[in-house]
Specification:
The protein is α/β, with parallel strands linked by helices. The protein folds into two domains: 85 residues, Alpha-Beta Plaits; 163 residues, Rossmann fold, CATH 3.40.50. 29% of the residues lie in helices and 32% in strands. It has ten helices and 14 strands. The strands form three sheets. Strands 10-9-8-11-12-14-13 form a seven-stranded mixed sheet, sandwiched between helices. The protein has a four-stranded antiparallel sheet with strand order 2-3-1-4. Helix 4 packs parallel to helix 5. The longest helix has 16 residues. It starts with a strand and ends with a strand.
Length: 299
Amino acid sequence: MGENSKFRQLSFFLPSGVSEEAAAFYLDLFEDIAHSVFLRDAGGRQRIEMLFYDGTQPEAAEILKRLHNCGLTQMTEADFTIEDVPDKNWLMHVYDELPPFQIGRFFIYGHHYTGEIPRGCFPVQIHAAEAFGSGEHETTQGCLLAMQDLAEKERGIARILDMGCGSGVLALAAACLWPEAQITATDIDPAAVAAVENHAAINGFQYRISCGAGDGYDAPEAQKNAPYDLVLANLLSGLLIDMAPQLADALKPEGYAVLAGLLQRQKDTVLAAHKKYGLTLHTAYESGGWAILILKKDA
């Protein structure tokens, strides 16, 4: 692995004709062997990208076996591209030429944007070359809309946790929606934490968003500021299930959680895992085959 890289990426195109919704089926095949799995639309073809963190090597033979077991027997290891992802490219590739876009009341734009902010919107600026997660993915957009709906009904939310914060888009949105709330943002990647600190400052929320690196709910910052009225967790379904008991512990009675990163067909499994710990469905949303859930903890 290169001196300036801590990620390796294995990527491949799915056969022509596979739709985005059908391609989403393949994402959770690899949750247990990759650090992160992404689906990209590349000129009408669906491309899967798997990131392997800190020296973990992609298991090409195992990945191919799983694809064959799902009927993609025409694929070979020659279809895979394996490469180092330099830190600089990992931090920059999402934000380069980020076009401004609007989701509900949120207007998200890059530092290079010099146009007008639409009237009545919450402006959220994302600085190019800072961590991952611009808000363009359907799961993030679904979270933003779910949060917006929740804010219309629950104005008294005062303590919020953005678990696995990435670039901090959800933390920034929470600061807009609940202007009196204190927000904690944590991530296992120190680069993401540094990005959130920067984004908090350029958006004027540096005194309301506190950041810290650490492993899930054991992160010192997450522990220090618990319990929470609201937890935001845009993760993979396996992580959501594994962390369900910790989420329940981190929430106040009658607190809320917004969960995303799961496919629509994984919804019942994720709900069942949380119901065991006193978290029940409040509202469910669907976007492009993805599910976004608002859960509420029992009193």
